[in-house]
Amino acid sequence: MRVPLIAGNWKMNTNVTEAVKLVGEIRPLIEPISNVEKVVCTPFVSLTAVREMLKGGSVKLGAQNMYFEEKGAYTGEVSPLMLSGLCEYVILGHSERRQCFNETNEIINKKIRAALKVGLKPILCVGESLAQYEAGKTEAVVTDHVTSSLKDIPASDNLVIAYEPVWAIGTGKAATGPQANKVIRLVRKIVAGLYGDSFARNLRILYGGSVTGDNIAEFVGQSEIDGALVGGASLKVDQFVSIVKQTAQAKK
Ligand code: PEP
Predict the structure, then answer these.
(1) Is 145 marked active-site?
(2) What is the pTM for the complete model shown?
(3) Which of 90, 97, 127, 175 would be 164's cystine partner, CB 3.0–4.6 Å?
């Protein structure tokens, strides 16, 4: 029913030459794998070159951020209009954006609205910090992230959500499958409250946080988890290919 999705978040890694090389290696290996949607989210500067390489194939392209205004005096920013037609997906509200660039739920809400307006598919990231996790605030934080980020935004089939506990991102300490499944079930329930049961049933919700070829099966083996947002391991050809392959296998 829900087509699983594996999205690679390359973060601030690779120059254009390296991005072209990496996608040149990954693409032929994942291209033939069906029943999984495959996305690579490259740095802005490589989008055009990578887009050329992906043309006509099944691997999709995404950006890692964007500003919410369409154009104007916002030096250094990239707008939704610039991305539309260039890539299909855009990661929004990543915890690194929240932490390093002070992005609030209000800003993320504006970005999601702006992305949807131009037909981009936002991957909205939500998740609690280590301190919040240890204080037992996971449910409260995730509820706030989801409801505030989606406040007054009409339902859209283009939306994807990724549950990414901050303590699991880039730390090598992934959540367990059941742990992530439980939070993702909650996210689906919150979404059902906002948009109705049928919308929530069809929404893809990913897990993200230290996913590798060694642990992906634990996540995609769970009923609520529809794939993964993969950081570090998406830069390693064998790891990313293995993650896509195992997801296809698990969700057959
Ligand atoms: C991410 O960047 O969204 C992420 C989950 O990173 P990592 O897989 O490296 O933990």
Answers:
(1) no
(2) 0.97
(3) 127
